[in-house]
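Appendix B. One record, verbatim.
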Amino acid sequence: VQLVESGGGLVQPGGSLRLSCAASRFTFSRYVMSWYRQAPGLERELVALIASTGGSTNYADSVKGRFTISRDNAKNTVYLQMNRLKSEDTAVYYCNAKLGPQSYWGQGTQVTVSS
C-alpha cells in the first residue's frame, strides 16, 4: 500500500493550495478517503472525508466553505482544494485510506500559511 501526498508549500494568508494524494497497491475505489492535519503540539485532526463513490463528503467546522475534498477513482487520487487559507491552517497534512479495520497513511505534506 502506498499513499503519496503532494502540493504542500508556503502560501500567504488568503491564498490557495491544492493537495493531491496518489494511491497505489490497493483497491482505491473501495476505500473511504480522508485528509487529516497535525499542527505542532496538537493532536492529528480530521479535516475532510469523502465516501468511496465520492457521493458524500464531510468537513471539520473550521474548514467548511473554504476546503473541498474530491476524488478521481480512475486516477486513484484524492484531492483537497484549500482556499482562503489562514495562519491556523498551518500543519502537516496527511492522506488516509480506510476500509473497515484497515487504515493506511501517507507520509504527509507541509502546509505553511504565513506572510
